[in-house]
Write a structure and sequence with these properties.
Blueprint (H helix, E strand, L loop, with lengths): L1 H7 L5 H24 L3 E6 L3 E5 L1 H7 L9 E2 L6 H10 L7 E7 L5 E9 L5 E8 L14 H18 L1 H10 L1
Antiparallel strand pairs: 1-2, 1-6, 2-3, 4-5, 5-6
Helix pairs in contact: 2-5, 2-6
């Protein structure tokens, strides 16, 4: 990518590059705002156990504060059973996996956790549903189509947030 960028720098005028970078930043903010508005917890981790992204519900329910730490680890999750489950399964995940937990810390709640291998096979989407809220009673079945749709939506958005260079690459190709 870097070689392609350097090779094509003379073809890109400064105003055009600035415009594309502004559009990229705006679309990144929009996608992140969408994930923040989802009432379910959304977390993305790499196979090494590093947390790359977590929306507000995920941070709250798992006792994380990503604003203080730029590189949070799965082992920092407050509930040790959830942390152990994720540490054990994320590095070797090859298919979707679901588990239910009663979390005691930082707040007492029942959750269903879905693990979904992202397209690049290097990152895992973790979707956390609060089973105690009325709106999530429908999602008690692991194969429910609404969960599948939410997983696909969250995975696509998380992938775009984590891969801004892809957008720049597309603009270079134009």
């Amino acid at each position: 990518f870097v070689h392609k960028l350097v090779k094509n720098l003379d073809r890109i005028d400064r105003d055009s590059l600035e415009k594309h970078m502004r559009e990229l930043v705006d679309s990144h903010k929009t996608l992140e705002n969408i994930l923040q508005e989802i009432h379910e917890g959304v977390l993305v981790a790499n196979k090494g156990g590093e947390i790359l992204y977590a929306n507000n519900p995920a941070q709250s329910w798992l006792g994380l504060n990503l604003s203080q730490t730029s590189k949070a680890q799965i082992k920092q999750i407050a509930d040790s059973r959830v942390a152990e489950f994720l540490e054990r399964n994320i590095p070797h995940l090859s298919q979707r996996l679901t588990a239910d937990f009663h979390i005691l810390s930082p707040r007492d709640m029942d959750v269903r956790i879905f693990l979904y291998l992202m397209e690049d096979k290097k990152e895992v989407l973790v979707l956390i549903l609060n089973l105690q809220t009325g709106k999530n009673k429908i999602t008690r079945k692991a194969g429910d189509s609404s969960v599948e749709g939410l997983l696909s939506l969250a995975a696509g958005i998380a992938h775009e947030i984590g891969n801004p260079l892809n957008s720049i690459s597309i603009h270079l190709a134009l």
